[in-house]
Design a protein that fits this description.
By secondary structure, this protein is an alpha/beta fold. Helix 1 runs antiparallel to helix 2, helix 6 runs antiparallel to helix 7 and helix 7 runs antiparallel to helix 8. It is elongated, with a radius of gyration of 27 Å. The mean pLDDT is 91.
Length: 409
Amino acid sequence: MTDQSELILINLQGTDRPGLTSQISKVLSAHKVEILDIGQSVIHNDLSLGLLIRMTDKAEDSSSILKDLLFTAYNIGLTIKFRPIPREDYDVWVSQQGKARNIITLMAHKLDGRHIAEVTRIVCEQGLNIDKIVRLTGRRPLNDAKDANDLSVVEFSVRGTPADKNKLKTDFIEISKQCDVDIAFQADNIFRRNRRLVCLDMDSTIIQTEVIDELARRAGVYDEVAAITASAMRGEIDFKQSFERRIALLKGLDVSVMKEIADSLPLTDGAERLFKTLKKSGYKTAILSGGFTYFGNYLKQKLDIDYVFANELEVKDGKLTGRHVGDIVDGAKKAELLKLLAFKEDIHLQQCIAVGDGANDLPMIQEAGLGIAFHAKPKVKATAQHAISLNGLDTILYLIGFHDREIND
């Protein structure tokens, strides 16, 4: 038997207020109309409501349904439009379900037309279709006063598989540099919505310094140590070798200096907000660092971090010996520790987030479901899945999908 049902797309617009959707749906309920799809959004109190309905009654009865909808919309102050949808168009729409979905996150201090224009151009070139755009940050005041959380973040939900994912990443990196915006592209899957463990490097990630450089300043060997540090972070020399060379230069330094440095460690913007929100939301957090356990444990107490793995400096008679105790935490060790923690917490690696800035962070960044190069060296940024180069550490929360209302107390 041929299906004689009618498909109608209904669009309603007007000033938002409570009860509008309820009034429209009452009419549909009275006529026993099937709703095939529904979507609603509100921008600055302006409501846009769309419904795709199926009317299975006889053709002559459809006019009374539309008449009742028109009358109700007029009485509640909404404009309404009807558009018949051909059955073949609906069948094509149904056949498209199951396509890959991805999330694009834009983060800028002031979002403007060029950000949206450039990103949507790339989306179009890659053959992707935008299904939804959502603002994750709160409403911005018009005054120019800035606070610590002065950020505009929007999230695009896009459907389809990129034609060239490597080019998409390269294009987004270029747009980021040109337009002062951080852009992330990630699969919208069950793992993205269920991250549980966040592992971070310490030096130049959680804190805005390299602790070994601060120790070197006190020991009077800063220039020598800084040169080795920079070379190691660029991936030019082996981390273990560079680590041993650097700590050897600290021989004889009094351990009291370590407390002085710890008490003045400069936290990265957004660090406290990040860890507070993660703790409140039940995430586990870890420091996986090529730095030193003394400073990692200091931050563990200050930021309520769950795990710390770093390098232990050997001390004798109240002074550093220039040697270390135990295994060196290098890049390979960080990746191993990430997997160990995932096993301990009984979670999938795809539920892990890894964040760092140097070449020795790449192994764990590549193991994690969400790997982030944070204010990183060019080599790291080019290799990592995602990069945050302009904004604070708390922007990680937006990549997970947090809204400001879920972050701010």
